[in-house]
Design brief:
The protein is an alpha+beta fold. It is 16% helix and 41% strand. The protein has one domain.
Amino acid sequence: MISLLAAISRLLLSLNLLDSIMTTTMRYSLACLVALMATGCGGGSSSRGDAVTETTSSVPTRAWFYDADGAQVARMQFQYPDGLTINVQLHSVGPDMTWGTEDDTSHPYLQCQYMSAPTPLLRYPDLYFLGMARSPTGATGLAALGLSNNGPMKCPVRNGRRLQQESGYVTGLFMPGLDFGYSYLINADLEHFGGTATEVIDYEFVGLDTTVAEILALSEFTSDIDLTTVDEPDLPAIVDHTQTNTVSFDAEQRPLSIDLAADSVWTAVLDEYCMEADPVAVSIKLLRGCSSAHQTRSYRYLDDSVEQDIQRYNGSTSADLYPYTATRQTDRVIVHRGTADAGPESGRDYESYLFNASEQVTAKVRSSYGEDGIWGTEDDQQEAVEAYHYDSNGRLYEVGYFGSIVLRYGYYNDGKLKQVDQFFGESDVPSERTLVSYRQGAPAKITVQRREGDPDDGHVLQTRIVMEFAPSEEHWPELFSPVPLFPEFRTPPSIDDLMRFQPIR
């Protein structure tokens, strides 16, 4: 059972300063892993360093998926018929667990259609899904429906190409304990007008009819707040919708303002409740916050700081203003509520990202103000959240979270990434291990193993995914995979990304 106190805590956390950089950190993690495959993460005056800008010249061709008993249950076939198309076909064994029989199924798991263009799709965060991610019940729904990372978008960013359309199939095959499937279609249009760009993304879903009540049944809350002030709508948790992103840029192509607007049948429901009802009750009962329809971000670039103002509102509600500042100091980047002039004392807490002489982030520290209400004094309460350790060659080898090791990296003698271990609890056996092999310097095969059995009694690692790669004439900015192969969280952000405040996926 999850208490409401915990739910509110998570909700507030998602609305604080971390909300501004979360997406950037997630985006950076895959780029960092590609870099790790080459030579390491971080370093250089830009804090990304040459390593992080490494591209990969291989693409997946085939993949196999196995169940807990070691039986092969699915296969994937990748096709690249031209420079603007990606087709991924999923074949699943039927209930008889015998390949080549009538109960086998086949689905177009992912189809990506691009056009030649000097810039990719903007791909700013999907406001519709961000509004759900800020709600504890909404986050539960996103996880249950396989809609993590701001939505279903799995098509990769490609140099010299802009994504126009994505269609795909979501299956419970890759989410243990879930058995469902649905299809989706995403159409994207992007237009530039001088220093302004407008992106319109349309989402359509077929077979996704999970209701709000069904999502709420997955979580239980105890509360002193009267949740009955908000009625559960007779609506699916996810519906077809449109999002429009309008961005204005300065002469250096940095965003000056970002306007995010979503439109669906949910918009009217939120308009009704967000004027009068308790925002916590709205968040819990409707699976999304009152900022799920409209959000505006504006930026000011100073010498050593960047200011970001976020206005969140829904329909006719007044817009609440949330200012944030990222400031670079000699050995750290500090992110806090309030403006640069007001100083960190304008908020309740702040985050410090410490970095070394190579400008690699080494730790994230969360601090809260003491009784004096002033930042940086002796009564501040500090909590080390994450720690990043590097070897003598500057390669990331260990990530700690609240004192526990959660990620560990291993390398071949030539410095290329060999394996990534992910840990939960006290067990020395990783809960998940990813192994990488290479051909002519590019990834050739990636294997994902997961722990089975009681972590204290005879647990072993069993193969779950094997994906093969082949050489590609195209240099891909990130490693492409429509299913997760590496842990996507708790990899170190770059200093540049911390200072940009740009929520590009």
